[in-house]
Amino acid sequence: MAVATLTQSGGHHALRFFLLRTTQFIAVLATTLLGLVAVTFFIGRIVPIDPVIAIVGDRAPAHVYARVRQELGLDLPMIQQFWIYLKKAISGDFGNSVLTTNPVMTDIINVFPATLELATLGTIIGALIGIPLGVLAAVKRGSLIDQFVRVLGLIGYSVPIFWLGLMALLLFYAKLGWVEGPGRLDVTYSYMYTPVTGIVLIDTLMQGQMDAFWNAVSHVMLPACLLGYFSLAYISRMTRSFMLNELAQEYVIAARVKGLSEFRVIWRHALRNASVPLITVIALSYANLLEGSVLTETIFAWPGLGQYITNSLQNADMNAVLGGTLVIGAAFVILNLVSDLLYRLLDPRTR
């Protein structure tokens, strides 16, 4: 009877703990997103770009300018404008784009899969190559392999991505012809499949359009590898740091004394413990690629969210700029909080 009572009490305690953590997570997420909306909105109002002129033109009569300004609510106090914007943003209404005349959310839904495809491939490439390189650099600390990995990461942090992208296009596309050029798919193949998910590689593969699939692979290979390299630089450096810390722990010495093979000690024990903080690193790298692919998409004419925001900014389309910036910021915040939650779930020491 006493055991049953203790078990029931422990179950209630675990449930309360879970509900408390969930409530805290939701509260932090809501507060962070509210701050993101506020910062995005007020920055959009401070920048010296007049959205009214972007709509009516700089030669419109004064009464037309005043009428459009009133319709947009720009004559209201700033706090009231923010409250109206906040209510609409919560429902997914960011207004209409001046450039495309479509609702901004509709445009974002159409272009975001391209950014998601590129960032996902870049993260996969960075993790698959960066983690083994970081492990080898830690195991062979001070060797030529370690120096090579550190220099590789240093170049990834130092070289501007637009310069590296242009050089890659010049070499692999213009000179060698190993890959296709800018764009997501050749016009010849763009009508061979029906967009379903918005991700060309998945849609063409699911529908059996292999010619279109391989053409899409050839187009995405260069920008994905470029983003993968920058992801690799970050992931390999952090993996090396985590592994050096784990290899200095007593359990590694004990495992070696017991006669376990070096392969098992490194890849089964040390890397397993280092993989917990690596989840956060990979998630942050993924978020960085989602928000930092603007220059890559511009260089490779990739029709994603980064290019959409760039074109909108050049045409003073502030509704689209604010909406796109808010979506990318929200994705970054959510990935950051989810990685922190996974870290707590996988590592009991942080609870």
Set out the fold topology.
Elements: H1 2-46, H2 51-56, H3 62-71, H4 78-90, H5 104-139, H6 144-158, H7 161-175, H8 200-206, H9 210-247, H10 250-257, H11 262-292, H12 294-299, H13 305-314, H14 318-346
Helix pairs in contact: 1-4, 1-14, 5-6, 5-9, 5-11, 5-14, 6-9, 7-9, 8-9, 9-11, 11-14, 13-14
Protein architecture, described:
There is one protein chain. With 351 residues, this protein is an all-alpha fold. The chain has 2 domains: 2-90; 104-350, MetI-like fold (Orthogonal Bundle). 77% of the residues lie in helices and 0% in strands. It is built from 14 helices and no strands. The protein has helices at residues 2-46, 51-56, 62-71, 78-90, 104-139, 144-158, 161-175, 200-206, 210-247, 250-257, 262-292, 294-299, 305-314, 318-346. Helix 1 packs across helix 4, helix 6 crosses helix 9 and helix 7 packs across helix 9. The two termini are 30 Å apart. 30% of the residues are buried. The mean pLDDT is 82.
